[in-house]
Automatic annotation (TrEMBL):
Keywords, in A-Z order: Amino-acid transport, Cell inner membrane, Cell membrane, Membrane, Symport, Transmembrane, Transmembrane helix, Transport
Signal peptide bounds: none
TM regions (residue ranges): 35-53, 59-77, 110-130, 150-166, 178-195, 215-238, 259-283, 303-326, 355-374, 380-398, 410-432
Catalytic activity line of the entry: L-serine(in) + H(+)(in) = L-serine(out) + H(+)(out)
The protein, known as: HAAAP family serine/threonine permease
Location relative to the cell: Cell inner membrane
């Protein structure tokens, strides 16, 4: 006797029998929690520490509109990228391989290059951010003289790189160890600032044009601040390996919970910081190129904020650096390997990895010493390029790739494309303004 599905009159297997043969959808478990925290840790870095500065300068009410938009933006965009990676016919394919599989070798090279440049500037930003955070702490909280910038930056960069070089297991352990206190202190700091809220900000009502203009200009920083796309490739591969037929649905569930967690913690923090400072102070923080918590530590008369503010900034940058470094290294490795293979050469994995490590250290160090505007880099490079990869590419894939045709026609696709285009064109609006 066979165990095939029973045919119905229209020659289709009965739906009840098909459902019975599928394994039950797995319940939420500790692995899912670990992934949720890892994605949260990847997102909570330099973006969140500079988001209150950019978002708050436009006033309270544009910030409310941003809070309503960012949840759906974050979930739907990352879900699209995860589904794109899961659409591969070959299990274990990362994003650079999936791009080549669906779009061909030429397009694969171009998108891999774009993927690298979406993440690489963020790694550079962390070199600047951690140097400025520690330098500000030494000068303002410890009362010491500022150390030579070149020396301070290389010590900090090599400290972060040493964890990466020690291996992925140690890196994941350190990230998990950092995320728990980060979540706790972030929440506590948000609540601690409530007595300092200046409610007169609620009375200032900008015109509709000004409010929408502020939101448009801030969308690249929103995209950057909530971005955890560097971890999505390996996340999607892990879900396919772990959950098989339920991989996409389980990935959607984890990404939805991550988005809820991010919006809850991050936007509470942003509102609390913005209401605690005046627009003039936020502008001053931007001019000093400091994370919001380092600036709060310098102007707040509380010992708690003075010492814990820089600590949170430091932990947030370090925890996010690891995820973004992995993404940038993955992208650069893809570029080199594809180029060598097209030239008929055999890639040497060890030599490539060593080259990537040296390249990363030297360029992060050089940019940290130069100290460019972090918000300027986010607005000009980070947000727009991330939007192209995270918001637009998966939506294009849905419209073109047969493996993703089941996702066509959803209104959410239009929303994601619109937000991606706004993020990419915000810099043009800034020039016009």
């Amino acid at each position: 006797m066979t165990h095939e599905a029973v045919a119905t009159p229209d020659n289709k297997p009965s739906s009840s029998h098909v459902k019975a043969t599928l394994p039950a959808f797995p319940a939420w478990n500790s692995r899912d929690t670990t992934w949720m925290l890892s994605l949260f840790g990847t997102a909570v870095g330099a973006g969140i520490l500079f988001l209150p500065i950019n978002a708050g300068m436009g006033g309270f009410w544009p910030l409310v509109l941003m809070a309503l938009l960012i949840g759906p933006m974050t979930f739907l965009a990352h879900r699209g990228l995860s589904r794109f990676v899961c659409s591969s016919a070959k299990e274990g394919s990362d994003i650079t391989e999936v791009v080549e599989e669906h779009f061909g070798v030429g397009a694969g090279k171009a998108i891999t290059l774009l993927y690298f440049f979406a993440i690489y500037p963020i790694v550079l930003i962390y070199g600047v951010g951690i140097t400025n955070t520690v330098d500000s702490f030494i000068v303002n909280q410890l009362g010491m003289e500022s150390p030579p910038r070149a020396l301070l930056s290389i010590v900090l960069i090599m400290g972060m790189m040493s964890v990466m070089l020690a291996g992925e297991k140690l890196m994941l352990k350190v990230t998990q160890f950092l995320v728990y206190p980060l979540v706790g202190i972030l929440a506590f700091m948000s609540l601690y600032l409530i007595p300092d809220w200046k409610m007169d900000a609620l009375m200032v009502m900008p015109s509709a044009v000004d409010a929408l203009g502020t939101v448009w200009l801030t969308i690249p920083v929103l995209v950057f601040a909530f971005n955890h796309s560097p971890a999505i490739s390996q996340f999607a591969v892990a879900q396919r390996r772990e959950y098989g037929v339920h991989a996409r649905k389980k990935a959607d569930q984890i990404l939805r919970n991550t988005s809820f967690m991010l919006v809850g913690f991050v936007m509470l923090f942003v509102f609390s910081c913005v209401l605690s400072l005046t627009p003039a102070q936020l502008a001053d923080a931007k001019a000093q190129n400091l994370p919001i918590l380092s600036y709060l530590a310098n102007v707040h008369n509380s010992g708690f904020v003075s010492y814990f503010g820089p600590l949170v900034a430091f932990v947030a940058i370090v925890s996010s650096f690891f995820g973004h470094y992995l993404g940038a290294a993955e992208g650069m490795n893809g570029i080199i390997v594809k180029q060598m293979r097209s030239s008929g050469k055999t890639p040497d994995a060890k030599k490539i990895n060593r080259f990537i490590q040296v390249f990363m250290v030297l360029t992060i160090w050089a940019v940290a010493v130069i100290n460019p505007s972090i918000l300027g880099m986010i607005e000009a490079l980070g947000g727009p390029i991330i939007a192209a990869i995270l918001y637009l590419m998966p939506m294009y894939a849905i419209s073109k790739i047969p493996a993703m045709k089941e996702h066509r026609g959803a209104i959410s696709n239009v929303f994601v494309v619109a937000m991606g285009l706004l993020a990419m064109t915000a810099i043009l609006f800034d020039f016009i303004k």
